[in-house]
Amino acid sequence: GAGVSQSPRYKVAKRGQDVALRCDPISGHVSLFWYQQALGQGPEFLTYFQNEAQLDKSGLPSDRFFAERPEGSVSTLKIQRTQQEDSAVYLCASSLSPGQGNTEAFFGQGTRLTVV
Amino acid sequence: QQQVKQSPQSLIVQKGGISIINCAYENTAFDYFPWYQQFPGKGPALLIAIRPDVSEKKEGRFTISFNKSAKQFSLHIMDSQPGDSATYFCAASPYGGSQGNLIFGKGTKLSVKP
């Protein structure tokens, strides 16, 4: 596709429910990132993949958050036992490759998660 | 601990005026400073970025000014237009941007009045 695609665009979950958010990065992009953006705030880093390897997960707020990218392309962010404080927009971004001077991160439109 | 402090929180400018948004950082390991523009319901989009080896970078109506000693950088939007109305985020990274672990400011909501 032309850009980073995220699905679903909107998700309403009952407290305690598990959710899975999908990210299709730009074809050929090696690096993939997940960010969490609370209402009225800037995005906050969650985790980073280089191909299928998760190189940094320091931003994941708890062990209820889990991300994977098994084949080095599509990624899924899973949140178990959702809580109200998980309500936010989850943004996925991809970039071409580290170390090649082209570092622009392209963001998807995000998935707005509302936990009720 | 907020590593990148952005101000003002909101800004109203007349069409044709200059919009100025400021950011300050503490971590001297930061070496990549991008600005992102975000419209409602959309993801952030890279506007312009600078590295600390230069003090200014201009792209069209957008200019970044960078002061390494003061650990501050700013975005100037010349001849502001209503279509520039959006939320702007400064960001910083300690990896030259290569790993994309960007640390964002809290954002500035810009409104350009016709």
Oligomer: heterodimer
Between the first and last Cα atoms of chain A, what is the distance in angstroms? Answer: 33 Å
Average predicted confidence as pLDDT of chain A: 93
Quickly give the structural class of chain A: mainly beta
The computed structural class of chain B is mainly beta
Q: Which residue ranges of chain A are poorly predicted, with pLDDT under 50 across at least 5 consecutive positions?
A: none
Number of H/I helices of chain B: 0
Note the run of SSEs of chain B as H and E: EEEEEEEEEEE
Shape of chain B: globular
By DSSP, the count of extended strands of chain A is 11
Spatial extent as radius of gyration of chain A: 13 Å
- Number of separate helices of chain A: 0
Rg of chain B, rounded, reads 13 Å
Largest sheet of chain B: 6 strands, mixed
Largest interface: A-B, 27 and 25 residues
Which percent range describes the beta-strand content of chain A? over 45%
Low-confidence stretches of chain B: none
What's the end-to-end separation of chain B, in Å?
A: 38 Å
Characteristic key phrases:
heterodimer, A: 116 residues, B: 114 residues, mainly beta, 6-stranded mixed beta sheet, globular
Task: Tell me what the structure shows.
The complex is a heterodimer of chains A (116) and B (114). Chain A has no helices and 11 strands. Helix content of chain A is 0%, strand content 47%. Chain B is built from no helices and 11 strands. In chain B, a hairpin with a 4-residue loop joins strand 7 and strand 8 (72-77). The chains are: A mainly beta (116), B mainly beta (114). Chains A and B meet through strand 5, strand 9 and strand 10 of A and strand 5 and strand 10 of B.
